[in-house]
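Example 9 (inverse folding). The structure is encoded as follows.
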């Protein structure tokens, strides 16, 4: 039977998600947005490309939550994106209100779906989504680590002149400024990044520059675009998570997942490697961190906790 993916938010990322899902024939697509015309217009436009691309799935645009009934996967991008100069955290108040409505729509219409949240500020919004919806924590997950890792891999591949497929990497922690690239878990042509630094194949300064550029990856694009923020790479990252779930691929992917003691963290969403298969988040992979990675991870966790405290001030129900 054809699977169903509902996309809540039909903006830049939502539209790109719909197109990628269609091209891969991953599932039928429902595009939901409060801006009804945008959802319907994009669904129709993509559907009309099937004559050229040859895909055979249904696409529907809507502003009615009943249309998301019985979704296998729901991907949320509803919210306002960053404007130049804004931090992800500036988005908190508005996006919390939006996510509450979305959570209620999902709870009522499609409580068995695997839900992937993309809306920023990611770690706190995904936590709020899980609390507001009451869905099990293994079925609510956030997308950020795949994107941060992909950006890191891209910059490394350009610097080291190595095809990106020959690079394996992992970025841990919160999305953006507090992410933690893992040097011992970054493998370039069978060598760890730590070894490559020792062998002077890449200088510490170059690596520092790449890490900073990765952390600021979204900001750099936002500045160039002037309006809106990155959407191609974020959408590709969301699709990888949906595909691993729908096809039970059990891929190991860095995602914002609910920690209940893992990494010494309780009752918080943070970016860690997880296995995604037919049961959702099937396992959290606990890596050995060296002291510097541990320190950076703790800074990252503190940033998420601080922002969560601000969220709780806005809505005490998040306690
Ligand atoms: O790594 C990551 N997680 C991210 C996250 C990478 C890039 C961008 N990231 C965030 O995704 C960004 O900061 C935003 O919070 C979301 C969505 O980004 P996008 O670029 O797609 O934003 P758009 O184009 O403004 O689209 C948002 C849509 C828009 O069409 C609104 O009408 C709609 O959300 N919207 C709603 N839909 C449903 N329900 C409600 N309440 C609603 N409010 C706005």
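The amino acid assigned to each position is listed next.
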């Amino acid at each position: 039977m054809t699977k169903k993916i509902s996309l809540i938010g039909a903006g830049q990322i939502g539209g790109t998600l719909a197109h990628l899902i269609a091209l891969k024939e991953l599932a039928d697509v429902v595009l939901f947005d409060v801006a009804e015309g945008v959802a319907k217009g994009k669904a129709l436009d993509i559907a009309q490309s099937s004559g050229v691309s040859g895909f055979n799935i249904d696409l529907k645009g809507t502003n009615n939550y009943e249309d998301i009934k019985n979704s296998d996967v729901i991907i949320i991008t509803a919210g306002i994106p960053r404007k130049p100069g804004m931090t992800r955290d500036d988005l908190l108040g508005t996006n919390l209100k939006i996510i509450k409505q979305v959570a209620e729509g999902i709870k009522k219409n499609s409580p068995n779906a695997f839900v992937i949240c993309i809306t920023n500020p990611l770690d706190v919004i995904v936590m709020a989504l899980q609390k507001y919806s009451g869905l099990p924590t293994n079925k609510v997950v956030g997308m950020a680590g795949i994107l941060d890792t992909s950006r890191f891999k891209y910059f490394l591949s350009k610097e080291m002149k190595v095809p990106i497929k020959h690079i394996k990497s992992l970025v841990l922690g919160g999305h953006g400024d507090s992410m933690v690239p893992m040097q011992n878990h970054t493998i370039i042509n069978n060598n760890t990044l730590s070894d490559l630094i020792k062998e002077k194949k890449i200088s510490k300064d170059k690596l520092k520059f790449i890490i900073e550029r990765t952390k600021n990856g979204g900001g750099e694009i936002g500045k160039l675009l002037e309006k809106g923020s990155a959407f191609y790479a974020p959408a590709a990252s969301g699709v990888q998570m949906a595909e691993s779930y729908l096809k039970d691929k059990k891929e190991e992917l860095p995602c914002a997942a609910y920690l209940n003691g893992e990494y010494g963290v309780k009752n918080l969403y943070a970016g860690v490697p997880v296995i995604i298969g037919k049961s959702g988040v099937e396992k959290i992979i606990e890596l050995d961190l060296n002291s510097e990675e541990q320190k950076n991870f703790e800074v990252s966790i503190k940033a998420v906790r601080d922002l969560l405290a601000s969220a709780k001030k806005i809505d005490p129900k998040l306690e």
